[in-house]
């Protein structure tokens, strides 16, 4: 919870009323463009605005219901513009289809479909801008300490310490931390758990965060009762934080409640679409880049002895091994000399990286700086061993050093580029690379693939973090 209960309610009302006005205004403007502007020729008889008043009201109600379905009136500061647009577009398409269906059912007047289509476009643009403005205003308020949810943390030990650290680290919430209820002596302590009722009343708390491992069900029930009575949000922070990713649901096993961890892997149709895109884009890229590939092959051959291509066994999806193809950027005896340089490793975790690796050839430095040594992996993409976008395929010796949670990285088809490659490349610590790869696996979408693909080009050109 970021906004106080009162501010959150007002913000939702403000969004709702603003959207209502904007939707009505969008369709009124659509009528003006259709019948008054002269932009669109009138092939049929002119239709007065009075005929459209009631239909526009009905359409606006339909749109608001669709917006509510997509939870667009919920204040979410983590929601990006792309996500906002997707929700607005999805709900607007549904609302448009439903509205057009109503016009077919009502036959006394033939309403202009063009007006409806124009209103559809204007509504998307105006409501998207309005939602971002409202979020921006609310963020500025929070940064000034206005409308921040007052939080109270309950618990002893490291878990509540971590929760408090996270609250204080967020500029939107750090002014809302009232204190902590615990038995141990800490700087944030304002009482003990037994004083919850009095402190809720005295401080007008909006949210209570329970972060106490091993607490009894009786104690939780008492806390929950006090919070519900005062209409305060009650949140429990579990100890199994590493599992709280992806799709989580609550289900019943008879009379027993259970936490279900759904598989977040792509469905069959999503994998099919991704594979089709890989083949089409990969094939097109090979055709367009074939002159460059030929020039680089000649340069490698002239620069140093050895083959043009370097193949290395990597771990693919579900642990399957495959030969990854790269342009050779090192001397032919580089693998034999690896043990000599292991002690100079500058990367954290199960990765070996040296910025000034003496095994790299002159042409190899150029290839690596702009990631041109990766181009032959387009053939791995066409063969289905890799994808354009995905986690980088590790070596077997690297995989042996992975922690259990990091193994999720090989649950999907590896890629030529990915989220961490466009977010800092080799400058990032290994643990952060893996976290980004896991985030990608758990939040995959075509839109995310497109964003990574478009960000790859400037990342490659800049050469930042490549060695």
Strand content: 5-15%
Spatial shape: flat
Please give the radius of gyration in angstroms: 29 Å
Q: Give helix % range.
A: 40-55%
Domain module tally: 3
Biggest β-sheet, characterized? 5 strands, parallel
Tell me, rounded to a whole number, the average pLDDT. Answer: 85
Based on secondary structure, the structural category is: alpha/beta
Unreliable runs, pLDDT <50, ≥5 residues?
none
Count of alpha and pi helical runs: 14
SSE run:
HHHHEHEEHEHEEEHEEHHHEHEHH
Note the gap between the termini.
Answer: 42 Å
Q: What order do the strands of the largest sheet run in, or round the barrel if closed?
A: 3-2-1-4-5
Number of separate strands? 11
Q: Tags for this entry?
A:
single chain, 467 residues, alpha/beta, Rossmann fold, 3 domains, five-stranded parallel beta sheet, two-stranded antiparallel sheet, 14 helices, 11% strand
């Amino acid at each position: 919870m970021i906004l106080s209960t009162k501010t959150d309610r007002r913000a939702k009302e403000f969004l709702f009323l603003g959207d209502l006005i904007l939707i009505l205004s969008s369709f009124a403007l659509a009528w003006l463009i259709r019948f008054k502007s002269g932009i669109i020729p009138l092939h049929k008889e002119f239709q007065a605005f009075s005929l459209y008043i009631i239909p526009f009201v009905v359409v606006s109600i339909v749109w608001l219901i669709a917006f509510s379905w997509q939870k667009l009136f919920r204040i979410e500061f983590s929601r990006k513009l792309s996500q906002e647009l997707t929700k607005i577009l999805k709900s607007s398409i549904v609302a448009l289809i439903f509205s057009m269906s109503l016009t077919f059912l009502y036959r006394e007047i033939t309403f202009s479909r063009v007006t409806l289509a124009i209103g559809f476009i204007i509504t998307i643009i105006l409501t998207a801008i309005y939602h971002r403005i409202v979020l921006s205003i609310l963020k500025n308020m929070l940064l000034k300490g206005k409308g921040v949810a007052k939080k109270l943390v309950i618990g002893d030990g490291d878990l509540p310490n971590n929760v408090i650290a996270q609250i204080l680290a967020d500029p939107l919430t750090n002014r809302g931390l009232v204190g902590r209820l615990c038995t141990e002596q800490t700087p944030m302590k304002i009482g003990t758990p037994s004083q919850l009722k009095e402190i809720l009343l005295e401080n007008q708390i909006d949210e209570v965060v329970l972060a106490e491992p091993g607490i009894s069900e009786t104690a939780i029930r008492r806390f929950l009762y006090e919070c519900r009575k005062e209409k305060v949000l009650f949140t429990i922070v579990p100890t199994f934080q590493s599992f709280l990713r992806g799709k989580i649901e609550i289900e019943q096993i008879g009379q027993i409640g259970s936490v279900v961890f759904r598989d977040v892997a792509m469905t069959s149709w999503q994998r099919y679409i991704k594979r089709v895109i890989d083949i089409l884009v990969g094939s097109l890229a090979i055709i367009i880049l074939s002159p460059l590939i030929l020039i680089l092959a000649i340069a490698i051959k002239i620069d140093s002895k050895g083959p043009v291509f370097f193949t290395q066994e990597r771990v693919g999806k579900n642990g399957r091994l495959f030969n990854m193809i790269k342009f050779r950027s090192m001397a032919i005896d580089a693998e034999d000399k690896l043990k000599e340089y292991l002690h100079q490793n500058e990367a954290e975790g199960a990765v070996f990286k040296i910025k000034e690796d003496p095994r790299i050839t002159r042409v190899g430095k150029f290839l690596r700086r702009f990631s041109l040594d990766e181009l032959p992996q387009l053939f791995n993409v066409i063969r289905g061993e890799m994808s354009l976008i995905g986690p980088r395929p590790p070596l077997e010796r690297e995989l042996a050093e992975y922690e259990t949670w990091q193994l999720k990285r090989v649950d999907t088809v590896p890629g030529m580029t990915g989220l961490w490659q466009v977010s800092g490349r080799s400058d990032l610590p290994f643990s952060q690379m893996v976290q980004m790869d896991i985030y990608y696996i758990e939040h995959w979408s075509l839109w995310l693939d497109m964003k990574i693909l478009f960000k790859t080009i400037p990342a490659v050109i800049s050469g930042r973090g490549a060695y």
